[in-house]
Amino acid sequence: MLSFPTQSLSVAAIQVKGSLDRDDQVWIEGDVRPVEDVLVTGRLSTAGAGRYYFHGKFSGATLGECRRCLVEVRTEVVGDANLIFADVEAEEEGGEDPDVFPLGRGRSGAEVDLRPALREQWLLEAPAFVLCRPDCKGLCPTCGANLNLGACSCAQNTKE
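RESULT FIELD:
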């Protein structure tokens, strides 16, 4: 569970240990999605009137194709999250701050929902392009053979 009623935060900080489900509705089409649940740990506390601060870490993995040879590659994604949430009604006039996330509304009133902010942090850390290894030779432009597995027949024909 990554949603917390603000009433529970008025008493004391909360130690967060949970996961963001890989099939959660927070993920949208086109996202670099995790292949397993994203583990989240940290501390959520108040940061003034109507403001809340989360400091923690997240980790998970994603699958992608090597951009040179198209082999499937698993990449570990690890990051730090320092997030501020605020009650938009309590915030001063002067425009929206892109570094402040709005509070959500739950059954018990205002709540801090970490999921949308953690999705954003995940997308900033997850690589858009991956390589299977730094010296990947890619595919032969003529026959499409994976050159990491050895020379193709095209290479032999061009030497003659």
